[in-house]
Sequence to fold (433 residues):
Amino acid sequence: MDKKLIAVFIVVSLLGTLFSGCLGDNDTSNQKPDVTISYPLDKATVSSLVMISGTSSDPDGDNELRKVEVKISDNKWVNADGMTQWSYDWNTYEYKDGMCTISVRAWDGKEYSDIQTITLEVDNPEVVESDSHKWAIFIATANLPIDNESKLGNGGLYLAENIAAYLIESCKYATSNIIILFDDGWIRDDNGYGEKLMTLQERNHEYDVTYGGATKDNVVNSLDRIINQSNNYRDSEVFIWIFSHGYGDLNNSLTGGKVLESSQIFLWDDIFSDRDLGELLFPLKSKKVCIIVDACFCGGFADKTIFNFPTALLFRSGIPRSGRVVIAGASKFRKGYTSTTKGPVFSLLWFEGLTTGKGDGFRPGLLKMGKPRKFNIFNDGEVSVEEAFYYARYKLSTDENLKDFESMEPQINDRYPYHGLFFSRKGLILGEN
Fold:
């Protein structure tokens, strides 16, 4: 090859390499994304479950965001949930008290955003006040991310907050011992049918209780925390309320397909069976426990099928034990019904009977259908968990305004204060020392 051609080739190659670098530096075809942290605020003190949340955007305007990642102190980067509105559930129970750095970045497939960082102080007190040996957890999954026909609205959240307020104001529950887990941790407009508005933790709250999403990790970690704390005290009291979609065959009007199956409910990211809950609650030592599950086909959580008949031995959940009252809002063979504005019908009636005094004096009656006393002189002025159940059960079967719900067949398994020859000799009064 001619030496002059070789020299020209070399010069052109060098110039090409040089200018390609310069052109790359001035390439404005892609701009890196932006990301912000809206909650918690920098320098805040946090505890329990924390939903870190914020927004991200693509300045190019083409919405090519691929992911948002979060890093806690020196741990690895992990994916957040969502992009333009993102969130990340952080379980601070697994961290020692002290300062933690939260870092967030967004990626558009080509470039990362600038890293945004806040510093938080973790403070999970271990000491429980001597008169506050009471714990409550509310788990509600209402608006699963599928078609609107499956959505139940925000009523379950509002009912959980109303029951929590009652426990705080009337039953001496400490706000630090109350956990509310709802959907994915976001509240949506149009009563749950619309778009995300804000995380539960960002809302204004009457009481400083712990909020989070009803994910399996949050449910398991929260119940473990409650069990471990309450087991330290012989006089502990635990209240568990679960509201969700139940899993069954809606086309099978006779049994819902539940003859040889456990009762199951939906969490936000998983299916949760009565046996799953039974295994989680096995280490719970408290002898004063109220568990309410309000969903379709949920009788198995009370180890009942229908008409108060026990579940077959091989299919029992293990949830009912001495010292526990377990209530299911529908039988194992029946659909439950809900109100999208106020919450599930059975729980609303149960709470009405409990808080208004209307449940005072109600007793089981035939097949535990519920029956009021004929003479008020036998009423004692207090409403037990069981009396409120029989009030709700009676209302469902006798109130003309509730005629659409009379086939729900709520079930109860009462083993408070103990399980023995006569099962139970008194009612469970919430907050009673």
User: Anything to note?
Assistant: The chain has two domains: 34-122, 134-414. The CA atoms of residues 129 and 174 lie 9 Å apart. The chain has a mean pLDDT of 88. The chain has six helices and 21 strands.
